[in-house]
Write a structure and sequence with these properties.
two-stranded antiparallel sheet; mainly alpha; single chain
Length: 105
């Protein structure tokens, strides 16, 4: 014979108590854990995306300022007075004499 002693399930107030189903409790805890981990993961993703957006906005702002600077530099380089000064100083060009001018009709 087995040494196991079987006891009757106690009755409280006319209700029979049942042994708890641990599988249900473990399933509930596992689902709760998965949902909690998903929530934490999604919040981490949001924080990372906000950081990326912030750094990209900063880069866009910096590139916008550089674009403005380059447009201003291009405008100053197209200035006819500056071009004439560079032609005279750097290239040694000069205005033509009246003998060098040929009028085509």
């Amino acid at each position: 014979m087995s040494d196991t002693i079987l006891r009757a399930i106690p009755k409280v107030g006319g209700l029979t108590l049942h042994r708890p189903h641990l599988a249900h409790a473990f399933t509930f805890i596992a689902i709760l854990l998965v949902v909690s981990l998903f929530f934490v993961w999604s919040r981490l993703q949001v924080v990372n995306l906000e950081y990326n957006i912030s750094s990209l906005e900063s880069r866009v702002r910096d590139l916008g300022q550089e674009t403005k600077r380059l447009k201003l530099e291009a405008a100053s380089l197209r200035n006819p007075v500056r071009i004439e000064q560079a032609a005279r100083a750097e290239l040694g060009l000069r205005l033509p004499t009246p003998e060098q001018i040929i009028i085509v009709q």
